[in-house]
Amino acid sequence: MTRAPAGSSAGGTSTTDGPPTAVGARLAGSSFLAACRGEAHERVPVWFMRQAGRSLPEYRAVRGPGSILDTVRDADLATEVTLQPVRRYGVDAAILYSDIMVPVGAIGFGVDIAPGVGPVVERPFSGPADLDRVRDLDPEADTPYVQATVRQLVAELDVPLIGFAGAPFTVASYLIEGRPSRDHACTKALMLGDPALFAQLLDRLATLALTTLRAQVTAGCSAVQLFDSWAGALSPADYRRHVLPHSRRVLEGVAALGVPRIHFGVGTGELLADMAAAGADVVGVDWRVPLSAARQRVGPGRALQGNLDPAACLAPWEAVARAARDVLAEGGGRGHIFNLGHGVLPETDPATLERLVELVHAFRPGGAGHGASAARAPQPRGA
Ligand code: CP3
Fold it and tell me: Per-residue pLDDT tens for 59-83?
């Protein structure tokens, strides 16, 4: 890891024209940023969703028993846990250690993240009177620790830092259900029963997501990921009508900052084209859809990120390697960012992820770019 002065921000990392800043110069050879933008890259970049976290002994050692929100509020600790997987695995991108519920927590909605459970909301969103509880974020006043963590990280890192936010639908689902939910029944009941109120809630959450992403990019993040983890619970028609316009407002709002935008959800096979249309440079794909099929769904000119089944990483190495090689073949090389189809499971042996990074880095992409590689990609496996 090199140490260099923190660069100015998006301006230094986002474009290939214009004078490079210290950060821009250090990231000039980034395979991750090249793949996001559809430019040539020598090797397939790799990082893992939830690469920081309980699968790492060094994480468990520093984390302590408190709420993850306490760890996020401590910029030194958040910096350290963000760096841990970069040091250990040699991944091609870091992801800011925070949580999709941090902004709503910071505006006083009353959110905690219960260990082993997930986000828990003290007084869930239940009617129009609750709209006033969802105000916009003032990043300097409400989440100064997030920007401080980003600034510390970009001074340390020689790989890009990914900022992120929860997409309006996924955050709304936690606010309405009050806790993680399998069927998202209350959320859908509100969406279908009072679409106007649902739209007002998602509009406010879109503003919140946009504000937090802008603050992260201004502080130095060189890519962003919008997590719509639970959008796959929706039919395409409901997604298009009730959700897409709000996610589009976030992604289009970020476009002006010039950093690559990754749009990800789980179980979104039927939504991939719409999620791309919402304004993504990179579409995250879970393990259910072969990447060659995903490429046909999102069309040319966009990169793909994914999609090894996180559970596959619990199998013996030979099985992991076989599954990873299948993902690489399906990805077609160029315009592919290797990742898991969802977050690293806490039971994962870090040694497996170490070997996985080596395997991905040893693979040589061919083809002429993510538009062209669609034509070369193998046919979908029975999809
Ligand atoms: O390495 C990283 O990916 C960066 C950090 C990160 C966290 N949360 C830290 C965290 C990121 C990107 C998130 C995003 C997030 N948070 C999402 C979207 C990604 C996804 O998984 O779909 C969602 C849905 C959440 C909400 C949330 N936070 C859940 C469902 C949980 C799991 C609860 C549990 O304990 O299993 C959390 C807690 C959480 N966020 C942990 C971490 C490292 C685990 C708790 C801990 O290790 O202290």
Answer: 999 988 888 999 999 999 999 999 9
Q: Which segment of 225-234, 308-317, 346-355, 369-378 scores lowest on mean pLDDT? A: 369-378
pLDDT confidence bin for 15, thresholds 50/70/90: very low
**Catalytic: 73?**
no
Q: Are 215 and 145 in contact (CB under 8 A)?
A: no
CA–centroid distance, 349 to ligand 1, in Å, is 18
SS3 per residue for 116-175: CCEEEECCCCCCHHHHHHCCCCCHHHHCHHHHHHHHHHHHHCCCCEEEEEECHHHHHHHH
**Residue 227 CB–ligand 1 contact under 6 Å:** yes
Helices 195-219 and 185-193 pack at an angle, to 10 degrees, of 120
Which tokens belong to 6?
């923190």
Domains of the chain and any CATH numbers? 42-303+329-337 (3.20.20.210)
Nearest CA to ligand 1 atom 44: 53
**How much is the pTM?**
0.91
Kind of pairing, strands 223-227 and 261-264?
parallel
Q: Which two tokens stand for residue 102?
A: 């941090």
User: Ligand 1 within 6 A of 51 CB?
Assistant: yes
Please classify residue 375 by burial: count the beta carbons closer than 10 Å to its beta carbon, then call 0-12 exposed, 13-18 middle and 19+ buried.
Answer: exposed
Identified catalytic residue from 89, 97, 174, 239 = 174
Is 112 among the residues known to form the active site? no
Type of residue numbered 138: D
Kind of pairing between the strands at 94-95 and 282-284: unpaired
In this structure, the residue with its CA closest to atom 32 of ligand 1 is 118
**Helical spans, DSSP H, in the chain:** 10-13, 22-26, 31-37, 57-63, 68-73, 75-89, 102-106, 139-142, 144-156, 168-177, 185-193, 195-219, 236-238, 244-255, 272-277, 291-298, 317-331, 350-362, 370-376
Helix (H, G, I), strand (E, B) or coil at 336: strand
Q: How many angstroms is it from 76 CA to the middle of ligand 1? A: 19
